Prior knowledge:
The protein has helices at residues 16-27, 72-75, 91-100, and strands spanning 9-12, 30-37, 42-49, 52-59, 84-87, 104-111, 114-120, 126-131. The protein has 2 domains: 1-63, Roll (2,3-Dihydroxybiphenyl 1,2-Dioxygenase, domain 1), CATH 3.10.180.10; 64-134, 2,3-Dihydroxybiphenyl 1,2-Dioxygenase, domain 1, CATH 3.10.180.10. It is globular, with a radius of gyration of 15 Å. It is built from 3 helices and 8 strands. By secondary structure, the chain is of the alpha/beta class. The strands form 2 sheets. A 4-stranded mixed beta sheet has the order 1-4-3-2, covered by helices on one side. A 4-stranded mixed beta sheet has the order 5-8-7-6, covered by helices on one side. Residues 5-132 form the VOC domain. GO terms for molecular function: metal ion binding; methylmalonyl-CoA epimerase activity. Keywords: Isomerase, Metal-binding.
Amino acid sequence: MAEFTFHHGGVSVPSLAEAIDWYGRVLGFELEKRFYIEAAKSHTAMVRKGPLRFEIFEVEGAAALPEDRRHPPADLRTHGNKHVAFRVEDLEEFLKEMEQKQVDIAFVVREAFGKGCFIRDCAGNLIEFVEEPN
């Protein structure tokens, strides 16, 4: 089997400038590059935090995120890509930081199988953070 590694996740947003600011201010991503994709009519940016990357698209005439895609249990009822997930050392500390930054916390899970949360970016896209059991 061919070897491969993860390169990036992608999100579509209504405002590229607002998203670049949000991903930087809230999660510590830095702008790697900006470019235009003619075929998609997309003003695009790649942001990076260490080996992690997000590609952010502002597409001319794009539709808003449907309401049912903004809530994790409802989103699972629609086929397709759901979210990306990152590991955190301490979920409770991460949640405190997100609350201090006034981030939209969509869903928190504290179950025997594990702990995690979903936050919404500035466009409502879901991002998961999980604390793996020791």
